[in-house]
Design a protein that fits this description.
The complex is a heterodimer of chains A (279) and B (354).
Chain A: H1 10-37, H2 53-60, H3 62-95, H4 101-107, H5 110-113, H6 116-133, H7 143-168, H8 171-179, H9 184-213, H10 216-221, H11 229-238, H12 243-271
Chain B: E1 3-14, E2 17-28, E3 32-36, H1 43-51, E4 58-63, E5 66-67, E6 78-81, H2 93-103, H3 108-121, H4 137-149, E7 155-159, H5 167-184, E8 187-192, H6 195-201, E9 204-209, E10 212-217, H7 219-224, H8 229-234, E11 239-247, E12 250-253, E13 258-260, E14 270-275, E15 281-284, E16 294-305, E17 309-316, E18 319-326, E19 339-344, E20 350-351
Parallel strand pairs in B: 3-8, 3-9, 6-7, 7-8
Antiparallel strand pairs in B: 1-2, 1-4, 4-5, 9-10, 11-12, 11-14, 12-13, 14-20, 15-19, 16-17, 16-19, 17-18
Helix pairs in contact in B: 2-3, 2-4, 3-4
The chains are: A mainly alpha (279), B alpha+beta (354).
Chain lengths: 279, 354
Amino acid sequence: MSVGVRPKSPTERLLAANAWLVFAFLYAPIVVLAVFSFNDNNNVGIWTEFSFRWYGEMFQNAPVMNALKNSLIVAAVSTTVSTVLGTATAVALERYRFRGQRLFDGLVYMPVIIPDVTMAVMMLLFFASAFRMTGGFGLSFGLGTISLSHIAFSISFVAIVVRARLGQLDPSLEEAAADLYAGRWMTFRKVTLPLIAPAVAGGALLALTLSLDDVVVTSFVAGPGSTTLPVYVFGLVRRGVTPLINAVSMVMLTASMVLVAVSLVFQRERGGRSVSGDA
Amino acid sequence: MSAAVELSGVSKHFDDIVAVDDISLAVGDGEFFSLLGPSGCGKTTTLRMIAGFEFPTSGSLRIRGREMALLPPNERPVNTVFQSYALFPHMSVEQNVGFGLLMKKVNKDEINTRVKRALDQVQLAHRADARPKQLSGGQRQRIALARALVNEPEVLLLDEPLGALDLKLRQSMQIELKELQDRVGITFIYVTHDQQEALTMSDRIGVMSAGKLLQVDDPQNLYEHPRSRFVADFIGEINLLEAKVIDSETIEFAGGSRASAESEASNGETVTIAIRPERFGLHGSDESPPVGRNTLEGTVVRRIYHGDFFFYDVDTPAGSLEVKEENRPSVRQFEVGDRVLASWSPVATTFMED
């Protein structure tokens, strides 16, 4: 009996064509961006020849480097703080019962739903009135306010990711730890945390990506000299596009892809392990 | 027999639901005690209160004479074998078994010695470096046991530990568990819904239903002298018949046949009696009834072949009887439609209290 390839139906052909169309739609701009970042011309759209000229200029460009430094500082601070607080929130909501929990449970998802602009205005007004009230302490808009804002919206994302994993965790694992003389802290450190580590790492990477990418909230709460990279790029665009932006964008894109790849590798490595008690 | 665990008037409410309703119970030192009942009867909640995972709403719970009702699990001298085993997936077998000792801050050398001994005890020393995921169901079960026993608890709590195993493995583990308990001499409190399992292993069994402890007895008494319809029905098969008390030695069934049975009920009272299917003997209606045995006459309406047994359904004026007869040449067999006499010894009659 011959094992032939069944002829494709029109529907199948159509679906395949659609898939390619979607891919093209998604990735063509990225390809264009990438190609023209290696273009040796002052105009973005005119190809002259291949060069690393704009990458070189990027590293020479003091404002870009300064913005990158700011971005990294804010990302490091906000990722660390929001990962710790988000994980704690997830544990509190999933494992403990307390007064006002249901209300809190609903509210914790708010930053995910609230539009960026709303969040930005909220933060701006909040800091403005906070500074007015504490006026004279020398507090002002800057990296501090940016970091706090990023923490504010990242906590929810971390909490949601970690909570999903906690929900799958067999509660008898933690009971077993308590049964074997571990107090609450030791139970968390020796059993709960290692088992939710992939989710915590995933949440942290999400927070990192959100922080590195954010334009809207950051541009509202930034102060003089505290511009982050995406905000700076946004400013550059308004003054006319040069291939420098392509180069900067390529660096950011590559960084994001590396982060995502790392998170995938990490998830695969740990995720293979079952989370249930009879693993 | 000093009490290893003593519950008095223990209740547990979850919001409006009464999971455990005023239970009093003393489990002796070194005893194999089973809590038996259908799912949702409160047996697991009772066990979890002893372990410290739940706290009683009211009542007192003493372990070795010390009040512990409100103590967290890590401060109680008991260990639990979970239904799901709850082995830590991110630790090796060795680390799993040593976890309790590590938390108790026992020194490293002693931990190693005791873990090794515990693994030897369950014949899994060669799997010390394996992850729980790499073990079979039976092996995980043994590791869960070793992880609890290595701490030398005053009481070992087992929550349907054999539930996830297949029948063959379960039966061999039952024997293994019982032998282990004899060897280590630790008090076992064993929760199960499997009556056969409870009868096989336990020194005493407590039957629970709807949060109440109905009867506590040794397996034989429980099977042969159940005090309530629920216990009679839950453990094995049983025939329940209504009868009227004529005098202290005689009862009368519907249809007018009388039987001897000693009762303390007052004359004229309606009672329910219970008789196990295997306690009946069947005889042809042409035979003379055996001396000293009660009889009921009826018709065979169904016969089920079970290999080593026949199950007969016999319709009598007193009600329908299920009769279990051995498949042996010396035991006469009947066909559907045959008129028969079902006989039983007066002492095999048990009066229900409800």
